[in-house]
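Appendix C: a fully annotated inverse folding record. The material below is reproduced so that readers can follow the format used throughout the book. The structure is listed first as C-alpha coordinates, followed by the designed sequence.
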Protein backbone atom coordinates (compact mmCIF):
# COMPACT_ATOMS: atom_id res chain seq x y z
CA UNK A 1 0.00 0.00 0.00
CA UNK A 2 1.34 3.44 -0.93
CA UNK A 3 3.21 5.16 1.88
CA UNK A 4 1.18 8.36 1.32
CA UNK A 5 -2.04 6.59 2.27
CA UNK A 6 -3.27 6.22 5.84
CA UNK A 7 -0.84 8.77 7.21
CA UNK A 8 -3.63 11.02 8.49
CA UNK A 9 -6.66 10.71 10.73
CA UNK A 10 -9.87 12.74 10.49
CA UNK A 11 -12.69 12.93 13.02
CA UNK A 12 -15.48 13.10 10.42
CA UNK A 13 -15.84 11.36 7.03
CA UNK A 14 -17.25 14.56 5.60
CA UNK A 15 -13.80 16.14 5.79
CA UNK A 16 -12.78 13.84 2.91
CA UNK A 17 -16.15 13.66 1.17
CA UNK A 18 -16.95 17.39 1.03
CA UNK A 19 -14.39 18.50 -1.60
CA UNK A 20 -15.37 15.65 -3.92
CA UNK A 21 -19.13 15.90 -3.52
CA UNK A 22 -19.74 19.57 -4.29
CA UNK A 23 -19.95 19.20 -8.10
CA UNK A 24 -21.35 16.65 -10.53
CA UNK A 25 -23.81 13.82 -10.02
CA UNK A 26 -23.69 11.85 -6.77
CA UNK A 27 -25.09 8.49 -5.70
CA UNK A 28 -25.18 7.74 -1.97
CA UNK A 29 -25.57 3.98 -1.48
CA UNK A 30 -27.08 2.95 1.84
CA UNK A 31 -28.68 6.32 2.52
CA UNK A 32 -30.89 5.05 5.38
CA UNK A 33 -29.04 4.65 8.67
CA UNK A 34 -29.16 0.97 9.68
CA UNK A 35 -28.23 1.52 13.31
CA UNK A 36 -30.83 1.23 16.09
CA UNK A 37 -32.64 -1.26 13.87
CA UNK A 38 -35.40 -1.86 16.44
CA UNK A 39 -36.65 1.66 15.80
CA UNK A 40 -38.74 2.56 12.77
CA UNK A 41 -37.05 4.19 9.79
CA UNK A 42 -38.77 7.48 10.61
CA UNK A 43 -37.39 7.39 14.16
CA UNK A 44 -33.89 6.59 12.94
CA UNK A 45 -33.92 9.43 10.43
CA UNK A 46 -35.51 11.96 12.78
CA UNK A 47 -33.00 11.13 15.51
CA UNK A 48 -30.09 11.43 13.10
CA UNK A 49 -29.88 15.11 12.09
CA UNK A 50 -26.31 14.50 10.89
CA UNK A 51 -27.29 11.56 8.65
CA UNK A 52 -24.59 11.42 5.98
CA UNK A 53 -27.11 11.48 3.12
CA UNK A 54 -28.68 14.69 4.41
CA UNK A 55 -25.28 16.32 4.78
CA UNK A 56 -24.30 15.35 1.24
CA UNK A 57 -27.57 16.72 -0.17
CA UNK A 58 -26.92 20.04 1.57
CA UNK A 59 -23.61 20.24 -0.30
CA UNK A 60 -24.95 18.98 -3.64
CA UNK A 61 -28.69 18.83 -4.45
CA UNK A 62 -27.83 16.67 -7.48
CA UNK A 63 -27.62 13.64 -5.19
CA UNK A 64 -29.61 10.43 -5.36
CA UNK A 65 -29.90 8.18 -2.33
CA UNK A 66 -30.32 4.43 -2.67
CA UNK A 67 -31.27 1.90 -0.03
CA UNK A 68 -32.93 -1.50 0.21
CA UNK A 69 -35.10 -0.29 3.11
CA UNK A 70 -38.48 0.66 1.53
CA UNK A 71 -39.82 2.36 4.67
CA UNK A 72 -36.71 4.47 5.04
CA UNK A 73 -36.76 5.47 1.38
CA UNK A 74 -40.41 6.52 1.67
CA UNK A 75 -39.57 8.66 4.71
CA UNK A 76 -36.74 10.39 2.85
CA UNK A 77 -38.97 10.94 -0.18
CA UNK A 78 -41.66 12.47 2.03
CA UNK A 79 -39.00 14.89 3.28
CA UNK A 80 -38.28 15.99 -0.28
CA UNK A 81 -35.14 13.97 -0.92
CA UNK A 82 -34.42 12.12 -4.17
CA UNK A 83 -34.20 8.51 -2.98
CA UNK A 84 -34.87 5.15 -4.62
CA UNK A 85 -35.37 1.68 -3.21
CA UNK A 86 -33.18 -0.99 -4.78
CA UNK A 87 -30.70 -3.73 -3.97
CA UNK A 88 -27.16 -2.41 -4.45
CA UNK A 89 -26.05 -5.83 -5.68
CA UNK A 90 -28.45 -5.82 -8.63
CA UNK A 91 -29.59 -2.20 -9.18
CA UNK A 92 -29.62 -0.82 -12.72
CA UNK A 93 -30.27 2.91 -12.56
CA UNK A 94 -29.70 3.39 -16.27
CA UNK A 95 -27.03 6.06 -15.79
CA UNK A 96 -23.57 6.65 -14.42
CA UNK A 97 -22.32 9.07 -11.74
CA UNK A 98 -19.38 11.35 -11.08
CA UNK A 99 -19.18 10.21 -7.47
CA UNK A 100 -20.52 7.23 -5.54
CA UNK A 101 -20.45 7.26 -1.74
CA UNK A 102 -20.73 3.93 0.08
CA UNK A 103 -20.45 4.77 3.77
CA UNK A 104 -20.60 1.89 6.24
CA UNK A 105 -22.50 -0.47 3.97
CA UNK A 106 -20.08 -3.10 2.66
CA UNK A 107 -19.97 -4.83 6.04
CA UNK A 108 -23.75 -5.43 5.78
CA UNK A 109 -23.65 -7.19 2.41
CA UNK A 110 -23.71 -10.86 1.48
CA UNK A 111 -21.68 -10.39 -1.72
CA UNK A 112 -19.19 -7.50 -1.47
CA UNK A 113 -17.54 -8.32 -4.81
CA UNK A 114 -20.81 -8.28 -6.73
CA UNK A 115 -21.69 -5.03 -4.98
CA UNK A 116 -18.42 -3.33 -5.94
CA UNK A 117 -18.61 -4.51 -9.55
CA UNK A 118 -22.10 -3.04 -9.80
CA UNK A 119 -20.89 0.28 -8.40
CA UNK A 120 -18.10 0.16 -10.98
CA UNK A 121 -20.70 -0.16 -13.75
CA UNK A 122 -22.50 2.93 -12.43
CA UNK A 123 -19.38 5.09 -12.22
CA UNK A 124 -18.20 7.38 -15.01
CA UNK A 125 -14.73 6.64 -16.44
CA UNK A 126 -13.27 9.63 -14.58
CA UNK A 127 -15.52 9.20 -11.54
CA UNK A 128 -14.63 8.44 -7.93
CA UNK A 129 -15.83 5.97 -5.31
CA UNK A 130 -15.63 6.83 -1.60
CA UNK A 131 -16.04 3.83 0.66
CA UNK A 132 -15.76 3.63 4.43
CA UNK A 133 -16.18 0.75 6.87
CA UNK A 134 -15.47 -0.06 10.52
CA UNK A 135 -11.94 -1.20 11.35
CA UNK A 136 -11.89 -4.72 12.88
CA UNK A 137 -8.70 -3.79 14.78
CA UNK A 138 -10.25 -0.79 16.52
CA UNK A 139 -8.59 -0.44 19.94
CA UNK A 140 -11.87 -0.45 21.88
CA UNK A 141 -12.76 -3.86 20.45
CA UNK A 142 -9.94 -5.56 22.32
CA UNK A 143 -11.04 -3.72 25.48
CA UNK A 144 -14.55 -5.13 24.96
CA UNK A 145 -13.14 -8.63 24.50
CA UNK A 146 -11.30 -8.31 27.83
CA UNK A 147 -14.37 -6.81 29.53
CA UNK A 148 -17.22 -8.82 27.98
CA UNK A 149 -15.54 -11.80 26.34
CA UNK A 150 -16.41 -10.74 22.79
CA UNK A 151 -16.20 -7.73 20.45
CA UNK A 152 -19.19 -5.51 19.76
CA UNK A 153 -20.67 -6.48 16.40
CA UNK A 154 -23.78 -4.93 14.84
CA UNK A 155 -26.50 -7.54 14.42
CA UNK A 156 -26.61 -6.90 10.67
CA UNK A 157 -22.85 -7.05 10.00
CA UNK A 158 -21.77 -10.00 7.87
CA UNK A 159 -18.05 -9.41 7.44
CA UNK A 160 -14.99 -7.32 8.25
CA UNK A 161 -12.55 -5.52 5.99
CA UNK A 162 -9.27 -3.84 6.80
CA UNK A 163 -7.31 -1.49 4.50
CA UNK A 164 -5.20 -4.33 3.08
CA UNK A 165 -8.06 -6.68 2.22
CA UNK A 166 -10.38 -3.93 0.96
CA UNK A 167 -7.70 -2.55 -1.34
CA UNK A 168 -7.19 -6.02 -2.80
CA UNK A 169 -10.94 -6.47 -3.25
CA UNK A 170 -11.35 -3.08 -4.91
CA UNK A 171 -8.54 -3.85 -7.35
CA UNK A 172 -10.05 -7.23 -8.22
CA UNK A 173 -13.38 -5.51 -8.89
CA UNK A 174 -12.03 -2.93 -11.35
CA UNK A 175 -10.86 -0.04 -9.15
CA UNK A 176 -7.58 1.67 -8.36
CA UNK A 177 -7.24 3.03 -4.83
CA UNK A 178 -5.88 6.58 -4.88
CA UNK A 179 -6.29 7.72 -1.27
CA UNK A 180 -7.01 6.41 2.20
CA UNK A 181 -7.26 7.69 5.75
CA UNK A 182 -8.39 6.74 9.23
CA UNK A 183 -11.57 8.08 10.80
CA UNK A 184 -11.59 8.49 14.57
CA UNK A 185 -14.54 10.20 16.27
CA UNK A 186 -14.16 11.31 19.87
CA UNK A 187 -13.75 8.26 22.07
CA UNK A 188 -12.72 7.26 25.59
CA UNK A 189 -8.95 7.58 25.80
CA UNK A 190 -8.88 4.82 28.42
CA UNK A 191 -10.29 2.34 25.91
CA UNK A 192 -8.58 3.61 22.77
CA UNK A 193 -5.15 4.96 23.83
CA UNK A 194 -3.35 2.47 21.55
CA UNK A 195 -4.54 4.39 18.47
CA UNK A 196 -2.28 7.24 19.57
CA UNK A 197 0.70 4.90 19.09
CA UNK A 198 -0.53 3.03 16.03
CA UNK A 199 -3.15 4.48 13.68
CA UNK A 200 -4.18 0.96 12.74
CA UNK A 201 -6.17 0.85 15.98
CA UNK A 202 -8.49 3.66 14.78
CA UNK A 203 -12.27 3.30 14.69
CA UNK A 204 -13.02 3.41 10.95
CA UNK A 205 -11.17 3.82 7.67
CA UNK A 206 -12.03 5.40 4.34
CA UNK A 207 -10.76 4.83 0.82
CA UNK A 208 -11.09 6.80 -2.40
CA UNK A 209 -10.86 4.83 -5.65
CA UNK A 210 -11.23 5.48 -9.35
CA UNK A 211 -12.15 3.10 -12.16
CA UNK A 212 -9.32 1.09 -13.60
CA UNK A 213 -9.66 0.56 -17.36
CA UNK A 214 -11.39 -1.13 -18.94
CA UNK A 215 -14.87 -0.83 -17.50
CA UNK A 216 -16.12 -4.45 -17.18
CA UNK A 217 -19.71 -3.67 -18.12
CA UNK A 218 -20.62 0.03 -18.40
CA UNK A 219 -23.97 1.27 -17.14
CA UNK A 220 -26.22 2.92 -19.69
CA UNK A 221 -25.16 6.54 -19.99
CA UNK A 222 -28.61 8.08 -20.41
CA UNK A 223 -29.13 10.94 -18.00
CA UNK A 224 -32.51 11.37 -16.24
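Designed amino acids, in order:
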Amino acid sequence: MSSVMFTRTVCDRLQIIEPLVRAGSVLDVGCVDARNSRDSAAQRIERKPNLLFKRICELNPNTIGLDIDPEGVRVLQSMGYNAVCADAHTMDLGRSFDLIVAGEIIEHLENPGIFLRNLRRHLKPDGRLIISTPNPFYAAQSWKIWRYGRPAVHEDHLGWQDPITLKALLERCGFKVIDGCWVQPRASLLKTWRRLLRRYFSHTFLMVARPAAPNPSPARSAEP
